[in-house]
Design brief:
Blueprint: E1 21-24, E2 30-37, H1 44-48, E3 62-68, E4 73-79, E5 83-85, H2 97-100, E6 101-103, E7 109-111
Antiparallel strand pairs: 1-2, 1-5, 2-3, 3-4, 6-7
InterPro entries: Hemimethylated_DNA-bd_dom (IPR011722), Hemimethylated_DNA-bd_sf (IPR036623)
Domain Hemimethylated DNA-binding: 13-112
Protein name: Heat shock protein HspQ
Length: 117
């Protein structure tokens, strides 16, 4: 006899919101959150390319970041378990930020209003 109950998925509330400045807990990069997936939503090939010992769980929020390290700027997709708040107060230099965000006098990044004129 098989269990006919639907598989239960537990969604967690994302720890970081849009505009949060975060850094990776292991690798030397930081970035700004521009989108959040409540659970893993990338390709299986992407997930399997991560070494098994470092592979994150899929049942957690994943963040799209405008990311940067000392050498370059890029877009990153990172699990919540691998992010911590960036409390440095340093501005981010990513070229995509001015298009998506504005920074208030207190240093907080907010999404730009994208309504049509």
């Amino acid at each position: 006899m098989t269990d006919a109950r639907p598989t239960e998925t537990r969604l967690r509330i994302a720890k970081f919101g849009i505009g949060a400045v975060v850094r990776h807990r292991i690798y030397p990069f930081r970035g700004i959150v521009f989108d959040v997936d409540p659970v893993f939503d990338n390709t299986e090939d992407w997930w399997l390319a991560i070494p098994e010992e470092a592979r994150p769980r899929k049942d957690q929020p994943f963040y799209h970041l405008l990311a940067e390290n000392a050498e370059t700027e890029y877009v990153a997709y990172v699990s919540e378990q691998n992010l911590v708040p960036d409390t440095s107060g340093e501005s981010l230099r990513h070229a995509g930020i001015p298009e998506m965000f504005e920074r208030d006098p207190g240093g907080t990044y907010r999404m730009r209003d994208r309504t049509a004129n």
